[in-house]
C-alpha cells in the first residue's frame, strides 16, 4: 500500500475517529452558501474523498435528520439542518434509544461527567425547566 503519511516510511494514514467524517462533511456543507451538491461538498473537503463516499455520508446524515435534501435533476442538493453539536446530540440520542435501561445509561453518563460538565448540565436542565413552566 502506498505511504500517504508524510511522517515517514511504513506509516499508514491516520484513521478517522467514529463520526469524524460525518462532522467534516457537515461542516463543509454548512460553509457552503445555500444548498449544495455532493460534488460541491467534496470540493470544500479538498477532493480527497471519493464522490460515492461523500454521497454515502450525506445519505447517512439525512437519515439522522442532520441534513435535508431536494431532488435536483438526477441527483440531490443538500442543506445542513444541524451543526456539529447537533450532530453529536443526535448520536447520543441514538445510543440512548438503543438501550433498554435508559435510566441506568443516563446515571452512568452523569456520574462520569467532570464537575464543570455536571454544572453545565444542571444549568441547562434548570433553564429548560424554567422555559417549559412559562
Automatic annotation (TrEMBL):
Q: Which UniProt keywords apply?
A: DNA-binding, Transcription, Transcription regulation
Give a yes or no for keyword tRNA processing in this entry: no
The answer to keyword Transcription regulation applying to this record is yes
Q: Which Pfam families match?
A: Penicillinase_R (PF03965)
Stretches the record annotates as Disordered = 1-20
Task: State the family it belongs to.
Answer: Belongs to the BlaI transcriptional regulatory family.
Mind telling me what this protein is named? BlaI/MecI/CopY family transcriptional regulator
Lineage of source species = Bacteria, Bacillati, Actinomycetota, Actinomycetes, Kitasatosporales
